[in-house]
Amino acid sequence: MQDKLTLMIPGPTPVPERVLKALSQHPIGHRSPEFQGITKRTNELLKWLHQTSQDVLTIAGSGTAAMEAAIINTLSKGDKVICGENGKFGERWVKVAQSFGLEVEVIKAEWGNPLDPEQFRKALEADAEIRAVIVTHSETSTGVINDLKSISNHVQKHKNALIIADCVTSLGACNVPMDEWGIDVIASGSQKGYMMPPGLSFVAMSEKAWEANKRSNLPKFYLDLSSYQKTISKDSTPFTPSVNLYFALEASLTMMQEEGLEVIFKRHERHKKATQAGIKGMGLNLFAAEGHGSPSITAVAPQDIDAEKIRKIVKTKFDILLAGGQDHLKGKVFRIGHLGFVNDRDIITAIAAIESSLESLNLLKKPIGSGIAAASKELN
């Protein structure tokens, strides 16, 4: 049977029928009163999701666009910044910062391990000229969650520094209270916890970040957030928006509000625990350090087994798409996405498919059903 693909990757994620129906509506004029109403409502819902009193700016672009916008709208050429790097996306923000002429200090952790907040504290205390700390909250490439709250706390004690957070795979999956944690800039993307197709990204900035924006001299035009800030006060956008994606955004955020933040966070934590238990139950190893797994992604390191072979059989036999390893992890890990529109059935199905695939390869280390039993116990 064709066309039964199930996405169990960390993005794009499954899209609810309610959101797809909203997406399929006929477009309307983006300068019309009707669209202004959608812009106003979605901004309020985005503020609820970010747990902030600040406006949340919507850009037609990916999460990388949001992160680039965060950097170029708050910093100036030659500014000193600290970038946390413990995966593919931490590496990316180092490259972006360097491409704009920033002086970058890198704080690293081995892929699979979390960043150490104490290293940030020491670096900040040693240099009063640091202008920003750039951190990936949930490192999509490794399935590691970093301690954003503690790092942000250290940044708040610094005279000049902002904290810029990549929350692309954490927002909508775990608690990220922007105002309470004192986060200056949060960037995210529509194809993750928002339960939408790719195409929109979001940037929220604190008052301190907007003050920094006045000093910023890095080149920008389409990603000039001051133009978005001016138009959002009129429930509008500076450029032609992705009209139908706004329809989807309102539908998805309404669904999230109906479920409630605490319930959403508990669901993701529960699915993380069930996935981890299922993987361990069938005799495979987790890649992320114990206790530091993301609620959005579980990375699996099947020792002495080609991870790509497992992915291929799961896709061929069960039409379930798992994510592969990136860069030096290709063939060494596979990743299971469990964020957004995912339920208990999806978790059980994915674990069963992996377990069955291993058995067909004669590589299953535990009796068949051990993984399912362990995952089911966490879901009961």
List the helices and strands and how they pair.
Blueprint: E1 6-8, H1 17-23, H2 33-50, E2 56-60, H3 63-72, E3 80-85, H4 88-99, E4 103-108, H5 117-126, E5 130-136, E6 138-139, E7 144-145, H6 148-156, E8 162-166, H7 178-181, E9 185-189, E10 200-205, H8 207-215, H9 225-232, H10 243-259, H11 261-281, E11 285-286, E12 297-301, H12 307-318, E13 320-324, E14 334-337, H13 344-360, H14 370-379
Parallel strand pairs: 1-13, 3-4, 3-5, 5-8, 8-9
Antiparallel strand pairs: 2-10, 6-7, 9-10, 11-12, 12-14, 13-14
Helix pairs in contact: 1-10, 2-10, 5-6, 11-13, 11-14, 12-13, 13-14
CATH classification, class level of the largest domain: Alpha Beta
Estimate the global geometry from the Cα principal axes. Answer: globular
Quickly count the helices. Answer: 14
- Helical content band: 40-55%
Q: Any idea what the radius of gyration is? A: 21 Å
**How many beta-strand segments?**
14
The spatial strand order of the largest sheet comes to 2-10-9-8-5-3-4
Q: What is the fold named in CATH at topology level of the largest domain?
A: Aspartate Aminotransferase, domain 2
Domain tally: 2
In CATH terms, the superfamily of the largest domain is: Type I PLP-dependent aspartate aminotransferase-like (Major domain)
What structural class is derived from the secondary structure elements? Answer: alpha/beta
Largest sheet properties: 7 strands, mixed
